[in-house]
Amino acid sequence: MKVTFITHSSYFVELDHCCLLFDYYQGDVPQVDKPLYVFASHSHGDHFSPAIFQLAQEEKKVHYLLSDDISPRQVPEDLRGQTTFVAPRSFYEVDGLKVATLRSTDMGVAFLLQCEGQCLYHAGDLNCWVWDGAPRFQNDQMVQAYKEELELLRGKKIHVAFVPLDPRQEADFDLGMKYFFEAAGADYVFPMHMWGDYSVVPLFKSTPTYREYASHVMDVSQPGQTFTL
């Protein structure tokens, strides 16, 4: 498996027989002559762009799995037969690719998928969105909602995960990643949603209480990085 960091929350995964593209909105997509499955977790502009439909113009097999908060009108008419709209807490199967969805704590879905014997998780904007200055009850509700959703992952053997590590949350930047590891964890965890501030990766990994997680967190530091797992 080869994983390429495109930018922000967008990753490209090359497997033996197909490729997966998550939450693309800008950047360079590797050119690989294999069937491509394109995922968009929700409609926010930093997770979805109609530019993804240009990928189907290259005469390769492309299928789109889009959160159902994305308007069908955004999909070109000739590609609607290659598009599956997904709802939270639902299950889909496309060409043997098995996809379960979780409910985001912001908008749309997170993806848990089985493909070629591997289990992958892409959180989208499912994160513990705790903010300094927000009302205490609001932050407490967020923590509860996030932990409850992650219970759906408990007991799953996840090989590769893509999880937010957002520096805008300041002292609470680590909560989403922390609770993910406590609930499920993964062999390889790729931080995302970092808004170009990659300093949060070594900061998380060097935190003494996260020592047991550090070896699983990949050293993402710039767009275009490729990791062979």
Tally of DSSP helical segments: 4
Instruction: State Rg.
Output: 17 Å
* H-E string: EEEEEEEEEEHEHEHHE
Which range best describes the helical content: under 10%, 10-25%, 25-40%, 40-55%, 55-70% or over 70%?
Answer: 10-25%
Low-confidence segments, ≥5 residues, pLDDT <50?
none
Instruction: Label the overall shape.
Output: globular
Beta-strand share of residues: 25-35%
Major beta-sheet overview: 7 strands, mixed
The first-to-last residue Cα distance is 5 Å
DSSP strand count: 13
Main-sheet strand order equals 6-5-4-3-2-1-13
What's the rounded overall pLDDT mean? 97
Query: Which structural class is indicated by helix and strand composition?
Result: alpha/beta
Describe this structure in words.
The structure is a single chain. This protein is α/β, with parallel strands linked by helices and about 230 residues long. About 15% of the residues lie in helices and about 30% in strands. The protein contains four helices and 13 strands. The strands form two sheets. The protein has a seven-stranded mixed β-sheet, with no helix packed on it. Strand 2 and strand 3 form a beta hairpin. The radius of gyration is 17 Å and the shape is globular. About 35% of the residues are buried. The mean pLDDT is about 95.
